[in-house]
Amino acid sequence: MKLKDLAVKLFADGAEIGIMLDLYKNPLIKGFTTNPTLMKKSGITNYRKFALEILQAIPDRPISFEVFSDELAEMKRQALAINEWAENVYVKIPITDSYGKFTFKLIEDLAQQGVKQNVTALTTYEQLIQVSRLLGTDTPAYISVFAGRIADTGIDPVPLITKSVEFLKDRPNQELIWASPREVLNIIQAENSGCHIITLSNDILKKLDWIGRDLNEVSLETVKMFRNDAIEAEFVL
C-alpha cells in the first residue's frame, strides 16, 4: 500500500510551531490536533498567543484546541472563546472532567450552538453512541477514540473502531479519529477498519516512508546496522 492511496486522513498531533509549519507544506497532512500536555511539553506558556499564531499560518486545515477547566460553566466559556478564533477551529471537549463526571450536557449545548467539536478521550462503544447522539446531525464534529491507550490495556481496539465506523454511517457530519496511535501499523489498521482520521505524533510521522518497504531490504539494513555498530564499538571476542 502507498501513502497516496490511503483513504484515512492523516492529522499531525503536536504543539511545536516549527514542526507544524513544516508539516503544513506536506499535502498528506490534512489537519492538526494538540492538547495541554503536548503544549506544556513544548514549553508553551501563552495558550492564546500560540493558537492565534498557528491559525494565522494555517488557515485552511482543521486544528483542534482543547479546553482545560474542570467546571462545566467555565469549560463552556473557554469553548466559546476558542470557537471564535478561526473558522477552521475544532474545540476539544473531554468525555469527562477530571473527577469522572460526564460532559454530555455541554457537548449537546455546544453542538446546538453550532460549535465544531472534537470530543476526546473516548474508550468505549457506549461512550461513542452517547456522544454521537448528542452531537446531532448538523454541526461538523470529530469523535476521538483513544485506540492506542485501549491497546495499552491489552485489548485490541480494531473491533471497537470498526463497530464505531458502522454506527456513524448515518451521521456524515461526524468523523471518527483513531487517537494515540503507537506505531505505523496503526495507520494500516485504521485504513482497513474504515476509520476516517488518524492522529500521528512526529515520531510516527518520521516513519511514514517505511510503509510499503521491501522486507528483505529492512532485514539487510538491520544486519548492516548491527555490523557497523559492532565495528564502531571496537568489540573483540
Report what the structure shows:
There is one protein chain. The chain is an alpha/beta fold and 237 residues long. The chain has one domain: Alpha-Beta Barrel (TIM Barrel). 43% of the residues lie in helices and 17% in strands. It is built from eleven helices and eight strands. The chain has helices at residues 17-24, 36-41, 47-57, 72-83, 104-112, 125-135, 147-152, 158-167, 185-192, 202-205, 215-232, and strands at 9-13, 29-33, 63-66, 89-94, 117-122, 141-145, 174-178, 197-200. Helix 9 (185-192) links the parallel strand 7 and strand 8 (197-200). Helix 5 packs parallel to helix 6. The protein starts with 8 loop residues before the first strand and ends in a 5-residue tail after the last helix.
Name the CATH superfamily assignment. Answer: Aldolase class I
CATH class equals: Alpha Beta
* Fraction of residues in β-strands: 15-25%
Number of strands: 8
List keywords for this structure.
237 residues; alpha/beta; TIM Barrel; 11 helices; 17% strand
Can I get a quick summary?
By secondary structure, this protein is of the alpha/beta class.
List the helices and strands and how they pair.
Blueprint: E1 9-13, H1 17-24, E2 29-33, H2 36-41, H3 47-57, E3 63-66, H4 72-83, E4 89-94, H5 104-112, E5 117-122, H6 125-135, E6 141-145, H7 147-152, H8 158-167, E7 174-178, H9 185-192, E8 197-200, H10 202-205, H11 215-232
Parallel strand pairs: 1-2, 1-8, 2-3, 3-4, 4-5, 5-6, 6-7, 7-8
